[in-house]
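A reminder before we start the practical. When you read a complex entry, don't treat the lines as separate problems. The point of joint prediction is that each chain is placed relative to the others, so the output describes one connected object in space. Small molecules and nucleic acid strands, if listed, are placed in the same frame. In the example below there are two entries. Take a minute to note the order of the lines before looking further.
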Amino acid sequence: MGHDTAEWVFVAIVIAVLCYVGVDSWIVQKAVEDVPANAEVIKVTGQQWYWSFEHADGTKEISTLHVKKGHAYVFEIYSRDVMHSFNIPDWVVFEDAVPGHVNHAWFAPDTVGTYPIQCREYCGLLHYNMRGSLVVEDDNAT
Amino acid sequence: MKTLIAISIITIVALALVPQLYFAHAQLAQQTSEKQYINLRAEVWNEFFRMTTAAFTVGAIVSGTMIWLVWRFRESNPKNKNPTKWEHLEDPTAGSYEDEGGH
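Here is the predicted structure of the whole assembly.
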């Protein structure tokens, strides 16, 4: 095997691995961002220094969000004042709340429980206390 | 040398394939369950581990090549006892790989 062959094998392997990285990441990103068609919309509004929620049926909640296990939800994320970031660490929901702009994130909880919600963008004096709770309830409980 | 290259390529392919087979099997198992939606956490972590595999594969190729270069072209290597054709030339840049005769 000549030097040229060895070099081309080296280059080909590295290019193949990088192509794999790009294509695989693209596929996964598409799958993760693909919101299920039947997802229920929940409007999430961040303002100094609490979260408020509005369900599709008009029900409003402050700081504590109740959802049903096994259902998909898509968040429409708004901000009334400054930049916030809506984060539910346990369910990989993490999206900025930007004044004048709507961001989206979705999730489908499959485990009943109470999970923390927190602001992940420094938004002022009480940022540290801009927390909430996500309560995932069994669909048959009510 | 050819055996070494063959073993290296087989190892690299195995490194890339084994996690793929594992994840494909896990995904098939998930499809047969009653889950309606993809698990975002699982997707993100699976992707992380696949990317880690790719990163280590590239790292192994690059560092392996550098180790081989240092080993092969060290001064004490018996193969380097005689000067190459380039070193005979007045202008070393005028030489080429082909002149080496597959050295």
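Discuss with your neighbour: Chain B has one domain: 2-95. What might explain this?
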